[in-house]
Amino acid sequence: MTKYPMTVQGARALEEELAHLTKVVRPKLSQDIGTARELGDLKENAEYHAAREQQGMVEARIRDIEGRLQNSVVIDVTTIEHTGKVIFGSTVEIANVETDESVTYQIVGEDEADVKQGKLSVSSPIARALIGKLEGDAVGVKTPSGLVEYEIVEVRHI
Hints:
Elements: E1 4-7, H1 8-37, H2 46-70, E2 72-75, E3 91-96, E4 102-108, E5 119-121, H3 125-130, E6 138-143, E7 146-156
């Protein structure tokens, strides 16, 4: 069985989404289906079919979230001793060696990844290159435009 690494914030976000889907969306869809049934012939009732299709998607998402939470390994990086090593959940500032441009990323689980928010999936090429390295190390990352070299400026556990 696959285990899903997840930060505390990622697990909390999934739990909140699950609660919203089960306590708000699911009851509303049941109500919409009941209302659409009252409109008559179900064969040609677009509202009924749309509500049933939406219900199927919501139920699939609920099962997916429940499965991920059951098989998750929640890692609270703030409880792990800071050694300067890049680990899952740590926030890493890296600088492009050529351009001296720096960027900060947190290494998170796949469900949490959002590059615009500075959250990199642990399975991304940059994160894979960074994991296990120390502050001050140089890291080469293969990109479509070639090898890009970064220096690890700082590793934080926040």
